[in-house]
Amino acid sequence: MTSRRFAFVGPTLPPSERPDHGYTYLPPVRHGDLYALDARPGDRILIVDGVYQHFAPIRHKEILAQLARGVHVAGAASLGALRAAELDGFGMRGIGHVYGQARDGRLVADSDVALLHADDGENEGAARGLTLPLVAVRHAAGRLLAAGKLDAQAAAEAERAAAAVHFTERSARALLHRAGDARGAVEAVLAEIAEHGDVKKQDALLALAAEDAPAAVSVPAASVWHSSYGREGEFDHRPLLPGSRVTARIALACLQLFAADFPDRHRAYALRLAATAAGPAPDADAGRVLAAAGFPPAPRPEALLARSTAATVGWTADERLLARTFRLPPGRLVYHDLPPEALAGASPAEVERWCLRLLPPAGRPPAPTGRCHLVLRDLWQARSDHEYRLCVLERGFRDEQEAARLARVFDLELVDRLARTAA
Question: Is the pLDDT at 165 greater than 80, yes or no?
Answer without folding.
Answer: yes
